[in-house]
Amino acid sequence: MMEHTVASFDEDLKQIGGLIRGMGELAGTMVADATRALTHSDTALAQRVVSDDAVMDARQRELDTRAITLIAKRQPMAHDLRAVIGAIRMAGDLERIGDLAKNIAKRIDAVGQGAVPRELSHSIDSMADLVLAQVGGVIEDYVAGDAPALAQLRDDDERIDEKYTSVFRELLTYMMEDPRNITACTHLLFCAKNLERIGDHVTNIAENAYYVLTGEQLPPNRPKLDETAMSVPAS
């Protein structure tokens, strides 16, 4: 990052960058904790995720305030303006990731006190691992200024979509085999969909980060392979 004549300008930008990194770390923690709480029926951990969402919201408000103040005071241009506007957009997506993690945590009581079946636990954990790698990677790549990695990460969302389709079909099979599974599996479907949506928000962050670093937009036709709209297991 280039240094400015006014040292406080650099400090303002550094503080905004620090808030983005902090929000990224919190988002990863919330997704990991929500998934663990789901697969282990851990209501105490789920409540922590719900509480963390208030922290995430507060951090977004702080970033918005700092960013708006910086624009008003410094009237940044070119790369600096992209960085500030990009931070506002990325913070919005990180806040939504927090909301989606909270939504997963709030469904744990509805899924039931019994442990999630081992097969489903493995499938959801596997999907969550992909999502967590994306959440952590996008902030790391942005901080490192690695535009090609951000472009690749955006394209890797295809893997999450494929995993979601697999989990969707697996859950439908459980429901068809035993109607007693319908309630729990329906809530698990919503949880899996929330994980897939988290992946979508990560790709939004990657696109904004890429634009901040390069001044160029990534091609709009990113991979999108959610096949569940018409997906029904064979009988």
Structural summary, described in words:
The protein is mainly alpha-helical and 235 residues long. The protein has one domain (7-230): Phosphate transport system protein phou homolog 2, domain 2 (Methane Monooxygenase Hydroxylase, Chain G, domain 1). Helices cover 80% and strands 0% of the residues. The chain contains 8 helices and no strands. It has helices at residues 7-40, 43-74, 78-106, 108-111, 118-144, 147-155, 157-177, 182-214. Helix 1 runs antiparallel to helix 2, helix 2 (43-74) packs antiparallel against helix 3 (78-106) and helix 7 runs antiparallel to helix 8. It is elongated.
Task: Summarize, please.
With 235 residues, this protein is mostly helical.
Count of spatially separate domains: 1
Separation of the first and last Cα atoms: 58 Å
State the secondary-structure class: mainly alpha
Instruction: Name the CATH superfamily assignment.
Output: Phosphate transport system protein phou homolog 2, domain 2
What fraction of the residues are assigned to beta strands by DSSP?
A: under 5%
Helix content: over 70%
